[in-house]
Batch of 2 targets.
Target 1
Amino acid sequence: MVNTSVGIVTTEYVEFDLELQLESGRLLGPITLAYETYGTLNRDRSNAILVTHAWTGDAHAAGRHHPDDRKPGWWDDMIGPGKVLDTDRYFIVCSNVIGSCKGSTGPASINPRTGKPYNLGFPVIMVRDMVRAQVLLVDHLGIDRLLAVIGGSMGAMQAIEWGIHFPERVRGIVPIAGCGRTSPMAIALNAVARQAIFNDPLWKKGNYKPEHPPADGLALARAIGHISFLSDRSMQLKFGRRFSARDGLFDFFGRFEVENYLAYNGSSFVDRFDTNSFLYLAKALDLYDLAWGFESREEALERLDCPSLWFAFTSDWLYPPYLTEEVIAILQKLGKPVEYHLIASDYGHDSFLVEPEKFTPKVVDFLERRLAEAEKAVTGDG
Amino acid sequence: MVNTSVGIVTTEYVEFDLELQLESGRLLGPITLAYETYGTLNRDRSNAILVTHAWTGDAHAAGRHHPDDRKPGWWDDMIGPGKVLDTDRYFIVCSNVIGSCKGSTGPASINPRTGKPYNLGFPVIMVRDMVRAQVLLVDHLGIDRLLAVIGGSMGAMQAIEWGIHFPERVRGIVPIAGCGRTSPMAIALNAVARQAIFNDPLWKKGNYKPEHPPADGLALARAIGHISFLSDRSMQLKFGRRFSARDGLFDFFGRFEVENYLAYNGSSFVDRFDTNSFLYLAKALDLYDLAWGFESREEALERLDCPSLWFAFTSDWLYPPYLTEEVIAILQKLGKPVEYHLIASDYGHDSFLVEPEKFTPKVVDFLERRLAEAEKAVTGDG
């Protein structure tokens, strides 16, 4: 049997003793980034692919931390020897974004000015700020130019920002199930999720103790988010109108199976994610607009200098295909090398995680072409 | 200028001193129903149309209670002299459903067995139970056979139940933006709205004082519901990504306009609706399945004996068109006289309230044909 796992991996941490100027004008520092790498950086340092994670993701994209881990990293389907992100050929890097709670600097980190956790003293960050911090890591790893940046959802936004703001540092971007700017529908869903947390008396304006988080509020917020990751069709397939076997249909608190699922998913989320991080990252999603700081989206996208490969999913109603397509239309008008695929899938926003086989062959091709270009560039230079 | 208003109207109340057997097997009684009527019942009592309201609607469908009322009844666009539901020709009846809080018996009513409000002692009700109570009112008004039952959303469900369970009492039904059974998506949205209330410490398992309702929880629940009544497109048109003029973009609590709207809408709802009623009616929506108690939907719909006119709206993602269309397909297979129109509208589930002009000409025709049939029947009998 062929081993397709990267095996046992370890999260690494790097601290940057500097102050990063954020889009808001505020400074953040020092900055710690948690990251993992899989595969080997080649001699020319030209085979590095940065994987960017979604809202509640982390640096642990592949393999296991311990042999008895129940689950591998979040994109293990994609990353490993012989897989789409083939660790026999590519050097894969994944780092936890700033603002998160999975090892990188976020609202739960200690504010060096006060010696206490930032909590709401943490600055509002944008996706662009996450990318600026990733640049520090890529520099640290000695990589001048990434072969590609690839990610879904908030990961797609990071890929886009890399392409626009660091065009000389990347040979290709692969935004999956993303958008050029979030819609008022997505903002509205985040708004009610936020309010669910604000309503929880344990939240205390962000000053909860880590051991006493606003569990009910966060679980509800997550359940709201979770609905938006699914689709009408995927819920019909998965739950239909099945009623909980233990409950009476006419019990006031009786639940349909879909309710049990959301409640379970919400509760288990509380154990693995920090509430304030959830809020800060939701804010970053709401604020996301690739045109931020430019006169227009055209002006922003004019800066994109590398080939890009985009995917949207028919049943994704959180970031519906039109949000990607309006970006594609601009790129085509600007004559940029762009490839776009609308993937038919029933699994809503989560389609990119549920049915990767529907789009990954295109990714394999795209990366091979980028690698060929990179190798040609080295030969040309040499 | 032509007067198209029904003018000043008064809500009437009728009490039925009986015990209604509910679908759950429990008994509910005595039952008070709040209702309004507009127009005049003709000599043959053949021109009565029952208007059935949605989730948070009430008996006050048209006109004003006081000359200085800021707003008329909820379907005033539709009801009045010369309007679609023409009070010069038809006798319009609208009653508040049981389980609600607008004058009909609901969880805030006094339980005669305890002398205290029912609160969670109120039985879980189904849409079919609401209709059974309406039958009492129609009997009380001396109407053997309604010309039509017409309503949107939960009102559509009531119209369907009238057609299936009281086929001899109705000449036509007009279900608008309804469904034959709610989807797991709709249930999931209600589940998180419910949880928003359950999480509010003021809810006290339904035993809050009316003057101290769980305002934060109810406002949030309403905001969640409200999102599902809109559409991606209608939010783009109405709010886009406009940010609140008073807030800083990088304020943690800064809001987009869509957030202000939802917050305002949620808060104002608290003043006009009872929390437990909201929960009981949400439950009735979740439980709605026209096949309940039958072997199949075919068996249920076989009982429908009158012409029916159905509307669904392209952008309605709460009760998407396919939910109506699967009912239409069965009716057509059964050879029932059915007319269905899919209306192109951007306004989501609320389209039926926002753009009535897109479907009302079909309603006018349908009602005229029913009236002609009724008159012919009288002549035939006479």
Note: The domain at 12-182+289-379 of chain B is CATH 3.40.50.1820 (Rossmann fold).
Target 2
Amino acid sequence: MRRILLFSTSTVHGTGYMEYAMPYIGDFLAGIREILFVPYARPGGISHERYTELFRGPMEAAGYRVRSIQDADDPIAAVDTAESVFVGGGNTFVLLTALHAGGLIEPVRKRVAAGMPYMGSSAGSNVAGLSLGTTNDMPIVQPPSFEAFGLVPFNINPHYVDPDPGSTHMGETRATRIKEFHAFNPQPVVALREGALLRVERGEAVVEGARGGRLFMAGQEPTELQSSDRLDELLES
Amino acid sequence: MRRILLFSTSTVHGTGYMEYAMPYIGDFLAGIREILFVPYARPGGISHERYTELFRGPMEAAGYRVRSIQDADDPIAAVDTAESVFVGGGNTFVLLTALHAGGLIEPVRKRVAAGMPYMGSSAGSNVAGLSLGTTNDMPIVQPPSFEAFGLVPFNINPHYVDPDPGSTHMGETRATRIKEFHAFNPQPVVALREGALLRVERGEAVVEGARGGRLFMAGQEPTELQSSDRLDELLES
């Protein structure tokens, strides 16, 4: 029943906000015309209102109606009646804190389990996983729990970047960070490069878009992911 | 009374572990010959034992005795009797979780307030600040609180990197992340490039080492920090 579309990033270099993503959204949503937008992640600290307007631009141009959860008198009721949800990127700690504070974790889980399409980019993709434990963001606020929606039984690392062999920087590479994650957590990590996305429906999980990613399993060497690769078996754990 | 030495990184590119740091440690510790090492941050997921051995190498070569808090029957008593403390880098979430679990926050605060020299690198420098809110690390475990030692009344961002104007990566720059931090937190952030350190004693806070850093104050443009710059006024807030 689950229908989930997770983008590594809202924007790829040299294109407009969500521009590259629109064909995937159009194909995924098919007949659905309304999207409930969750602006809580506030990229760059912008207001919920400005963020919603940013999202509304390309969506309305493509014929979708956008409601903001921020404008709803009852956000849980807005989730309960949404035709589809899109959780925008920004800071994952800010996003997850707001989701917990609003009591929205369970309502979204229930709707997605019942077939409501869930879409997210960046932080909005990260929180579709089991926990925020593989976010790249700065912990600028403290959520009551790191537990996330768990719409898929693994973790997502958005904006994945490969180690740079020419770097003189001594901070950890992304691959090292995910290896450290696996010293404390058992679940697989699907790392998506910018331009890549993961589409889940009909019990299938498919990598789409450009540039692919990497699959990190605890205790194993990571494996390369390319567009059209299937990760169906990960859905069963 | 406070005596604090905070390194951005344990290692600069092309040199051995702690090699560049030894002259600063020698000058800072003066007559003190014993260091209590805190290996909790476990860089790369290595064991506490291996990490302590790594640290012991250059320290013993320079004539210091190294005790590991991990070998102490009573870690709090080890802090209470330490001549000096060095908190090693690694994952800040793992480190702070262990510090809270061991009840070590208050004991370290008290000893530092009474004049015991505190040294840290990377994660060990970050936790000397008010919170871990400006770490760069992945949140691979959930600490009970983001509150850190607060030995200085501001936050530290280690491994600071400047925005790369040639980058096509859409993830946030470090400067943007710290700006987002200031949308939710009031305290100054002292960001130190690799090679730089902050030395606090006699009521003075001095930037030392190579490459400097940046000072981020809420609502203001960041200012450049260079070696020998003084941040004494930040100690008074």
Note: Chain B touches chain A through 44 residues (CB under 8 Å).
